[in-house]
Amino acid sequence: MKRIFILFLSSLVTVSSMAVEAPQSAKGEGQRHDPVVMRINGKDVTRSEFEYNYNKNNTDGVIDKKTVEEYTDLFINYKLKVEAALDAKLDTLSSYQQEFRTYRDQQIRPLLVKPEAEEAEVRAYYEGMLQQLDGKKLLLPAHIFVRLPQQEADGSAARARIDSIYALLQGGAEFEATARSCSEDQGTAQRGGVIGWIGPHNLLKEIEDKLYSMQVGETSEPVQSTVGWHILRVLEQRDLEPYDTLAPRIRMHLEQRGMKDRLAQQVVDSLANNGGETRSVEAVMDELSDRYAAQDDELKYLIQEYHDGLLLYEICQRQVWEPAARDTAALKNYFKQNRKKYAYSQPHFAGALLQARDKAAMKAATKALKGKPEEQWADIVRSKINADSVMVRFERRNFERGENAMVDSLAFGVRQGKTRPAKNFPVAKLVGRKLKKGPERWTDVGAQVVTDYQSLKEAEFVAELRRRYTFEVYKDALATVNKH
Description:
three-stranded antiparallel beta sheet; flat; 49% helix
């Protein structure tokens, strides 16, 4: 899913907002405790909505905390982008609606599950455990295992081996140590043969029947199963713990297996088929969302945040970020006009570090890359040199002097310390260009240029939205934010 982009992706353009008197509706008896602080494209923004967004984005842990006045411009930019997205009908896209509902329903579905329904699930699970025990105790067994190879017709070798191990135990060898060294069940051998707590129907029947006939501390003679031979020992036995003791662990286990989501789905399905009238799950969830949001402002504004944040992402992706990232001519021109801001404090090497298994592989890679555009190098190495096996390691980027010892040695002649080649890739070579003062091409600092150009286009986009739409700020009401 896309990340929810909220206010801080908004443009840094902060044109001063108009300060006018709040509308009468914001001062009326019914609105006294939640006045309108601004109106954007004819839509009122209440103090509680503004406070929700402001407080969420200006917590104590935020490095660049904003004052209410500073945040107001960011909030307006944010809302103007949402208005542009609505005008473009991006909220009607099936992809948007599906993603929005996914986020929203993650908040709504847990509210549908009643505590008593969860308690009944936990209780039923416990009762099932009791029924499975059928009056028997829980056992903690251990075993030493010898596998019965399928290719052996009579299994005599496996029988001889388990008998020799049993003889060791009869001679006084410790069970745990013997299991670690002799058992062919690697999962339990490292634990000294301990299988873990079991109840009825947890193991092969022939093994289980034998275990339940033994006493604590008793070691069995070799027992054959369908998979091999076992020497068994019962380490402990106990009754199932009381419900109140086990309930928290059962609840956690069931929650990890999706209990709440399953119970919520049962509620939704019941509502969708209520009284013989069948409705879609989407319609039911829309109704439930409206109902719960009307009862909880925090939930209402969180859902609004999902709604607006996804729209903001869509409009910026379509109108700003993607077009700017694809416009190579504009990016090249932007870099040319702003070259000084990308100057280096340290020399760089723009290109690729190749590390090959042998000189032949390095020669083949160097020849394949010669004269080819740098952005194609990775594909060439992958398809032509490493098609069958990895013969050459490849790393392409701008290397700053001081960050990679091998690059420093090959590009800049740095001899401090000993540069060791990678194991199994002893032949190293650089392909590319040394950049002493700064990047030569916009692609040398492509990611930064794209980001900076996108920011410029976003600022222009916001400025255009501020001309297209109306907005008013009511300073008296805004001054009461977090002060009532």
